[in-house]
Write a structure and sequence with these properties.
164 residues; mainly alpha; 3-stranded parallel β-sheet; two-stranded parallel sheet; 8 helices; 10% strand
Length: 164
């Protein structure tokens, strides 16, 4: 319901996706209500609610084929980086912090700002292409280890400290 998080854009994207491919399920978590009640969509939606354990969150990310990040604004995109750490690629709009997380056509997709039709079509292409999924999954995990592992972050702090 937070305009910055793009729930309305997610609903539009899912409606378009359902018109071209109705063979998908949706998993939501966090402060999410039933997507079907609010949008009239007729799809299998599994709302996991608020997840407090990292292990449970990692299982959810790992169970997904792709994470849809419909945000209008993200300072960093922690959800996207967590998803990639679990080997799950991300699709999001080419705006704010998301564009620093996703490498377009390598570990996910960056979509023109708020273009729900493009997002739906890219999700569909991704879901239908096994080779692309395997490549994106490995590239997502590789980037997460390279950029956000404890060793990578510690090294960046040490270099920053030494440079001052």
């Amino acid at each position: 319901k937070d305009l910055r998080k793009g729930g309305d854009l997610l609903f539009k994207t899912l409606k378009i996706l359902q018109e071209i491919n109705d063979d998908f399920n949706l998993i939501t978590f966090g402060k999410s209500d039933s997507i079907n009640k609010e949008t009239g969509l007729s799809l299998d939606c599994f709302d996991m609610g608020f997840i407090s354990k990292d292990k449970d969150l990692a299982l959810i990310y790992s169970a997904a084929d792709i994470l849809i990040m419909p945000s209008r604004m993200e300072s960093f995109g922690q959800v996207a980086s967590e998803s990639m750490a679990c080997g799950t690629p991300v699709i999001g709009f080419n705006t704010s912090g998301i564009k620093d997380i996703i490498d377009d056509n390598e570990n996910g997709f960056l979509v023109n700002k708020f273009d729900c039709s493009e997002m739906a079509h890219k999700i569909n292409i991704y879901l239908k292409n096994d080779l692309m999924r395997r490549n994106f999954e490995s590239k997502a995990r590789e980037k997460a280890l390279k950029m956000w592992s404890y060793d990578a972050v510690a090294s960046k702090y040490i270099n920053l400290y030494k440079s001052n």
